[in-house]
């Protein structure tokens, strides 16, 4: 296994297509959410990718804005689920953010059924459950 962290412009066209294909497969097709999966946040994002040889195991996207730092699009590909890779990619992502940014709030929007999972990393729920693309979500925050 290997971990890659790259900004969008550093990714080859093929790697970017592989990432986008997995995101659409999971977030649009599997979760049946019809929305614009590829967005302007991808332009300046950092992509955190865990590979098994050349296969994507898990992925997250780190984005920054005037509102702070966030990550999302957390995924584990189907063949690698229930093996701890979700925890591994989230912890790696938090560690990367902690190294790059200090004394900031990290804010994420997570699916509500993963509340305990995100709290296990030190996130605190910062909102009531709300609907995003037809799926219940909660806003979480952590001071880094």
TrEMBL record:
Alphabetical list of InterPro entries matching this protein: Acyl_CoA_acyltransferase (IPR016181), GNAT_dom (IPR000182)
Gene3D superfamilies: 3.40.630.30
GO molecular function, one term: acyltransferase activity, transferring groups other than amino-acyl groups
Domain of life according to the entry: Bacteria
Transferase listed as a keyword: yes
The entry's keywords: Transferase
Name of this chain's protein: Acetyltransferase
Source organism (scientific name): Staphylococcus nepalensis
């Amino acid at each position: 296994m290997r971990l890659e962290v790259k900004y969008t412009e550093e990714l080859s066209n093929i790697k970017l297509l592989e990432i986008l294909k997995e995101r659409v497969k999971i977030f649009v097709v599997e979760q049946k959410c019809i929305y614009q999966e590829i967005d302007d946040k991808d332009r300046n994002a950092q992509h955190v990718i865990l590979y098994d040889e050349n296969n994507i195991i898990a992925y997250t996207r780190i984005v920054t804005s005037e509102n702070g730092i966030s990550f999302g699009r957390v995924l584990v590909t189907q063949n690698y689920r229930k093996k701890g890779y979700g925890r591994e990619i989230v912890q790696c992502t938090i560690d990367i953010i902690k190294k790059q940014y200090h004394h900031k709030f990290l804010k994420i929007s997570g699916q509500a059924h993963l509340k305990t999972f995100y709290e296990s990393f030190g996130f605190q729920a910062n909102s009531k459950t709300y609907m995003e693309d037809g799926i219940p979500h909660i806003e979480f925050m952590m001071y880094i």
